[in-house]
Structure formats: structure tokens, C-alpha cells
Amino acid sequence: MSKPIPLSRHQGLDAIKLESPDGASATVLLHGGHVLSWVPAGGVEQFYVSPDSAFALGQPVRGGVPVIFPQFSARGPLQRHGFARSKPWQLVMAEQGADDALAVLRLTDDAATRMVWPHAFELELSLRVSGRSLQIELACENKGEQAFDFSTALHSYFAINDLDEASVQGLAGLHYWDAVAAVEKQQRVELLLPTGDLDRIYHQVKEPLLLREQGISTERRLQIQHQGFDDAVVWNPGAEKCAALADVPDADYRKFLCIEAATIEHPIRLQAGESWVGRQDLTLL
Ligand SMILES: O=P(O)(O)OC[C@H]1O[C@@H](O)[C@H](O)[C@@H](O)[C@@H]1O
After folding, report:
1. What is the ipTM of this complex?
2. What does the record give as the active site (predicted)?
């Protein structure tokens, strides 16, 4: 028997708190379709949200999982990372099932989006939390008469105890765009030990990635699996760039690592009536 989940408030904004009967939970804001929190059953918070983040309409939240659409970063004429992360989304459904909790949110074009991006679209963000897993699915449908191209990402900010204790596995052999050095490179080693000021777009990511943390008091293995997305962004601003971010405390670059399911290098083209679906499956092992 499924039970509807009522709307609640988080930091003054409309939110849905998904609670699975097994104790797993996740919170998503209608503002930006922004997943803010994920606590696997028996686990702790997996996402970083900056204590200095604005929770204000029209502004992106710093942390959690911003939805990047229809432009990545400054690779086009739109605002950085597009408009989806700053728009109010609609709640389609939210319910607790026998062994999970689900929510679906929707964003469609309006007069303001058509002014900057003249296309009719429907985005649907579906979340499912259960046990040790969170699934985030993003679907886009072209509702207009003309084809359009878009880039997209689920810009996940994973909370870490300290950058020195974190590593990422599964990138060996992949080619990537190093946005700091502005050069195309290849990942030679299996283990990526992130240092500050890391900004890379790995291409053709087919296998699951593993975020590992190994410290005196920490031992964590988080599996990150993408479907439908071609690229994976690994980003950490480092000390200097973090100090320049108004909405992140200076030392907090040590407390998160972004690993983003993305399609950037080859934007997705949808003809009239066509749809695309991408998924990011997160499992705490
Ligand atoms: O500050 P923003 O707009 O949220 O962007 C954060 C970062 O997002 C990452 O996805 C980009 O690769 C970085 O270049 C960027 O700095």
C-alpha cells in the first residue's frame, strides 16, 4: 500500500522529504528540483550543502544535486549552468511504497525560458530512495515543432570528511578535458587522488565509478553508476577558487567532491516529439 507524502518546508522553501520504510531518506526542493539530502538506511548524510548557501527563489543552492540544463557552465549564451537549477519545479507525485519512497517533479518552458531559449520542453526528475540506494532519473521531451540541442548534468556534491582521505576509482584509460589547464588529457592511473582545483570532464564513462574514503575514522565506498549520460565531471575548487565563492566557507573545499553525471562534449539533439532519459544510481556499499 502506498502513502502520499505531503509537501513540507525546508529553509523556507517547499520540499518533499522521502522516507522509505527501511529508514533511508532523501529531501528534494521544488526550487530547482534540487536534491538536498540523502541518508541511506543505517548511514549518514551523503551530500554536502554549504552552510552559506542562499535558499532563495531565482538563485541556485550550493550543494546537493543541482540540475544543469540546457547549458553546461559558460559553454553558451545562457546563464552559467542554464536555468533549470533556479526555476520552480512542479510536484507530480510523491509517495511512500512498501520498500521505497518516490517523487516525480516537472519543469516546462515558460515565457521567461522561451525569451532566452526558444524551445518547448518538459523535464521530469524522478527520485527513488530505498535501503542503501538513491536513483535520480532525468528525462527531457521536446514538446515543440523544431529540433533542439542541450547539455545537462546532475551536479552531485558528495560530502567527504577530508579531501586527503578521498579517491575516485574507475576512470583509468579515459580521455578528459582538463578545464584548469585547458587541455585534453588521458587518465593513466586507476586511482584519482583529488587535490584542490580539479575541474575535469571525463568522456565516454561507461563503467561505474567508486568514491572511496579512507581515514582514521572513515571508511566509505560509494558506487556511482550512470546511464544515458556520456561524460562525468569531477570538480573541486581548491583553496584559492573556494575563497572566491561567496556562498562557500573558505575551508569547505576540503569537505566536498563533485562527481557529476553529464552530457557535455556531444550535446543531445532531440527532434520534435523525441525524448531522452539519463540516470544516476548511487549505492553505499
Ligand atoms: O559556481 P557554479 O556555477 O555552481 O559552478 C561550479 C562548478 O561546476 C562544475 O561543474 C564546473 O566544472 C566548474 O567549472 C564550476 O566552477
Report:
1. 0.98
2. 155, 260
Under-50 pLDDT residues of the chain: none
Calpha distance 220→210 (Å, rounded):
10
In the sheet that 191-192 helps form, which strands lie side by side, from edge to edge?
A: 3-4, 90-96, 101-108, 121-130, 133-142, 275-284, 219-227, 209-214, 166-169, 191-192
What Å distances lie between residue 224 and 18, 33, 105, 238, 277, CA to CA? Answer: 20, 20, 22, 23, 17
Does 81 sit in the ligand 1 pocket, CB within 6 Å? yes
Q: Is the CB of 78 under 6 A from ligand 1?
A: no
Q: Whose CA is nearest to atom 4 of ligand 1?
A: 62
Q: What is the pLDDT of residue 216?
A: 78
Nearest to 59 by CA among 12, 26, 106: 12
CATH code of the domain occupying 3-284: 2.70.98.10
Ligand 1: which of 48, 73, 178, 258 to mutate, most ligand atoms within 8 Å of CB?
73
Q: List, for residues 225-250, the tens digit of each pLDDT value.
A: 999 999 999 999 999 999 999 999 99
Distance 233 CA to ligand 1 centre (A): 10
Does the C-beta of 54 come closer than 6 Å to ligand 1?
no
Going from the Cα of 181 to the center of ligand 1, the distance in angstroms, rounded, reads 15
Q: What percent of the chain has pLDDT over 90?
A: 96
Tens of pLDDT along 50-87? 999 999 999 999 999 999 999 999 999 999 999 999 99
**In this structure, how many other beta carbons lie within 10 angstroms of the beta carbon of residue 111?**
6
As a whole number of angstroms, the distance between CA 173 and CA 186 comes to 6
